[in-house]
UniProtKB/TrEMBL annotation:
Family designation: Belongs to the TRAFAC class TrmE-Era-EngA-EngB-Septin-like GTPase superfamily. EngB GTPase family.
HAMAP family reported in the protein's UniProt record: GTPase_EngB (MF_00321)
Essential cofactor(s): Mg(2+)
Organism (species): Croceitalea marina
Annotated CDD domains: YihA_EngB
Pfam families per UniProt: MMR_HSR1
UniProt domain EngB-type G: residue ranges: 22-198
Protein name, entry field: Probable GTP-binding protein EngB
Alphabetical keyword list: Cell cycle, Cell division, GTP-binding, Magnesium, Metal-binding, Nucleotide-binding, Septation
Length: 198
């Protein structure tokens, strides 16, 4: 799919105030610093449409980006950031939970995990919560430029096998990406395009 336009529409913490248009949308969620905002920029070929940072906790709100005038990419704050206060964590949990529970336009969420790391309980629990709430999701392994091809395959297999041994009967769709070397861009855009056209 060719990206012909990508524009920031709005940021907010209230799902009721998100764009009203009934356009399909795709949300990026995962631990702080996993590379959600960077991946959005990579997909749309823009350096800083979504704000990124080396320090975790950069994205704080629900951010809507309209793509090709007919669908949305949604950048969300990360979870699991240790330096956020308990109170902030609760507020965050509330509006992100509400976003996933109430947003009718959400057609698929992408749960991002750093390909270098062992499966983390917080990610596995979040995927189970999505499953229990009937929210379709796919896994995106990020920062693949940090591993050699053999290790990429090994890490992905370990991750998927763990899912199959525990909560899941079949592996969710999954993608291997790098915002640094653009790995996975076309495959991911085709996946989105296929859903948009179905
Ligand atoms: P929060 O908004 O804080 O939750 O973080 P985020 O998940 O949006 O991460 P962000 O895109 O801001 O990236 C975090 C850091 O990881 C930045 O320093 C990025 O440059 C780096 N990064 C993101 N993607 C990649 C990647 O594919 N490869 C490498 N090597 N670094 C990456
Ligand atoms: Mg971010």
């Amino acid at each position: 799919m060719k990206i012909t336009s990508a524009e920031f529409v709005m940021s907010n913490s209230d799902v009721a105030k998100c764009p009203k248009e009934p356009l399909p949308e795709y949300a990026f969620i995962g631990r702080s610093n996993v590379g959600k905002s960077s991946l959005i920029n990579m997909l749309v070929d823009r350096k800083s449409l979504a704000k990124t940072s080396g320090r975790p906790g950069k994205t704080q709100l629900i951010n809507h980006f309209k793509i090709n005038q007919n669908w949305f990419l949604v950048d969300l704050p990360g979870y699991g950031y240790a330096r956020v206060s308990k109170k902030d964590k609760k507020v965050f949990q509330k509006y992100i939970t509400a976003y996933f529970e109430k947003r009718k336009q959400l057609v698929c969420s992408f749960v991002l995990v750093d390909i270098r790391h062992e499966p983390q309980p917080i990610d596995l629990e979040f995927m189970e919560w999505l499953g229990a709430n009937g929210v379709p999701f796919a896994i995106i392994f990020t920062k693949a430029d940090k591993l050699k091809p053999g290790a990429i395959e090994r890490h992905v297999n370990t991750y998927l096998n763990l899912l199959l041994e525990t909560a899941w009967e079949e592996a969710p769709p999954h993608f291997v990406t790098s915002s640094s070397n653009r790995m996975g861009k076309e495959v991911l855009l085709s996946y989105i395009n296929d859903i948009n056209e179905s």
